[in-house]
Amino acid sequence: MRPDTPAENVDHTAEAARLERTAGLYPEDAETLLLRAAAHLELSGDRPAATTLYDRLLSSAEGLDNPALVRALKASNLWEYGHEAEARAIIEGIRTTAPRDPAPWVIVAEALESHDELEAAAKTFSEAAQLLLPDSSEEPPPATHPLLYGRHRVRRMLGLPHDDWDTLADTLHTSSVTLDELHDPKRVWSLGSDNPAELEAEISRLRAELGAYREALSRPFPVAVLHWPAQELSELLSAYPTLRTEYPSHAEHLSAIESALRELAASGTPNLGIVTGTVPSYEAFAASEGASPEDATLLPQYATTLAARGRAAAWPPGRGAGCWCGAGEAYADCHGG
Fold it and tell me: Which residues pair with 224 in a beta bridge?
C-alpha cells in the first residue's frame, strides 16, 4: 500500500496534493486515494498532515470500506511522532474489535515490533492467526501470508521454538533464502562485520528479501468477477433489457459468480476477487468508452477497470467472514458451503 520510492526521486508532498485533488473528483475512490496521499505525507516527514487525512476519512459521512485499516495506519503514524498513548489506545481497540481483514493486524503488530514491543507484537500476530487462518487442511489465502511471516520473524527474535504456524510460514515462503536465515537476529551483527565473506552473505540475503518484497508490491490487481447487488441488477435490466441474456435472474447471477471463481481457482489462477458494480458507474464507464451500456462486451472490461482502481474484494473471503453476496451470512454457510 505504501509507496517505496525514495524521497529524493519523488516530490511526496506534491504527489499527496495531487491524490487529494483526484479524490475530490472521484469520491467513490476517495478512501483508496486519500490513504495513498497519507502514505506520501508520511514519507515526506509531514506526519501531522497524514494524521489529518486519517481523521478526515474516519469522520467522513460516507461509510468506509475498511475503517480498521485506517485506524491501524493512524496508530502507526501517531506513534512515529510521539503520540504513543493514543497509538496504544487505537491498537488495543483494533485487537478488541478483531477485524476480519489481515492488513490492520499486520500494521499494528509491526508498529509494536518497530518499537521493541516484541512480546506484544508476537501476541498480536498470534491473535490474528487464530482468528483468520483456515483449518490446517486448507491453504491460507495470500492475504494472510504476511501474518505468518511477521509472526515467524518476531518469534525468531524472541528465541522461541518453531510451532505449527512457523512451519507453515516456512512452507509458504518460496525465496532461495529460508525464513530462518532472513529472520536471524545475528544478521544485524553481520552488517557491522569486517569480514568480507559475512558481508557478502548478508547482501545475498538482503537481495532475496528485497526480491520477495518487490514481488509482493508488483502483484497485479485481482482477476475479478463482476457482482451486481439485487437492486442494482434490477435497475440495470430495467434500463437495458437486452442484458437479460447475461443475467436471467439474480440467483443465477450469484451462482455463476461462485462457479466462475471456483473454476479459475481450480485452473491455478491466483489473486482472485469480486468487484461490485453500480448502474451510474457502469454508465459512466460506457460513456468513457464511447459505447452503449447495452453492449455486453463492456461488462468484463468494466470489471477489470474496477479491479485496477482497487475496488476488488479478495475471494474467497477469510475464515468466518461474511459472504461476498451481501446476504449477511457467513461465507461458509452461504455460497462457500
Answer: 273
Burial (0-12, 13-18, 19+ Cβ within 10 Å), 270 = exposed
Distance CA 255, CA 314 (A): 17
State the pTM of this model: 0.65
What are the DSSP E strand ranges found in 22-77? Answer: none
Most confident of 134-138, 246-250, 318-322: 246-250
Cβ atoms 155, 122 nearer than 8 A: yes
Rounded Cα distance, 77 and 205, in Å: 29
* pLDDT, mean of residues 42-65: 89
- Reduced to 3 states, what is the DSSP secondary structure of residue 134? coil
Q: Is 310 left (phi over 0), alpha (psi -120 to 50) or beta?
A: left
Output the nine-digit C-alpha cell for 80.
Answer: 512515529
State residue 173's pLDDT score. Answer: 85
Q: What is the pLDDT of residue 140?
A: 84
Mean pLDDT of all residues belonging to the chain: 85
Nearest to 271 by CA among 232, 322, 308, 320: 308
- Sheet of 223-227, strand order: 223-227, 272-276, 313-314
The grid cell for 68 is 480498521
**Residue 2 pLDDT:** 42
Q: What is the mean pLDDT of residues 40-64?
A: 90
CB 126 within 8 A of CB 160: no
CA distance 270 to 78: 35
Q: Which residue has the cell 443475467?
A: 247
First to last CA, the chain: 32
What's the pLDDT score for residue 314?
Answer: 85
- Tell me the CA distances in angstroms from 231 to 111, 234, 236, 260, one per residue in order: 42, 5, 9, 22
Q: Kindly state the DSSP code that residue 322 receives in the 8-state scheme.
A: B
